[in-house]
Amino acid sequence: MIYETHLASAEAALWPLDAIAWNHIDRDAASRERALHQALYDAALIEGYLPLYGSRLLSLLEDDVDGTAVLSMELFEGLRHYTALKRYLDAVGFRSAEGVDAGLADARVRSRTGSTTYAADTIVEHLTHFMGSELFAAFFFQRIAEQTREPVLADLLRRMSADEQRHAAAASALLESRVRRDPTLAARVVAAAEGFRHYGNDIVEVPVAERNDLEALAAFNRRVRHICAAE
Question: pTM for the full model?
Answer without folding.
Answer: 0.95
